[in-house]
Amino acid sequence: MPELREIHFSGQVQGVGFRYTTQSIASGLAVTGFVRNLPDGRVQLVAEGTASELDLLEHQLAERMEHRITDSKRQIRPATNQYQGFEIRY
């Protein structure tokens, strides 16, 4: 059953390729949504897919960016099916 995960990452997550890395990982998975920088220095990730695909996205992102992330807050909700692909938003 598809779900939506919204994750806010804190740390040194802006200006270090975090969004590009997230998009690159997402392109190889069956997920849709977006990633963007927030004015307060955090990065917001909104992704929809199956729990297993979203787990892979989170795991691979954590592996590649673990030295940049100091905290993350995650919310899980039912999928909305509103996204056609995965993109970087500005």
Care to describe what's here?
This protein has one domain: Alpha-Beta Plaits (2-Layer Sandwich). Helices cover about 30% and strands about 40% of the residues. The termini are far apart. The protein is of the alpha+beta class. It contains two helices and five strands. The radius of gyration is 12 Å and the shape is globular. A five-stranded mixed sheet has the order 4-1-3-2-5, covered by helices on one side. Strand 2 and strand 3 form a beta hairpin. Helix 1 runs antiparallel to helix 2.
List keywords for this structure.
90 residues; alpha+beta; Alpha-Beta Plaits; five-stranded mixed β-sheet; 2 helices; globular
Topology:
Blueprint: E1 3-11, H1 18-27, E2 32-37, E3 43-49, H2 51-65, E4 69-78, E5 86-89
Parallel strand pairs: 2-5
Antiparallel strand pairs: 1-3, 1-4, 2-3
Helix pairs in contact: 1-2
Helix content: 25-40%
Q: For the residues shown, what is the average pLDDT? A: 97
Return the CATH class: Alpha Beta
Structural class: alpha+beta
Give the biggest sheet: 5 strands, mixed
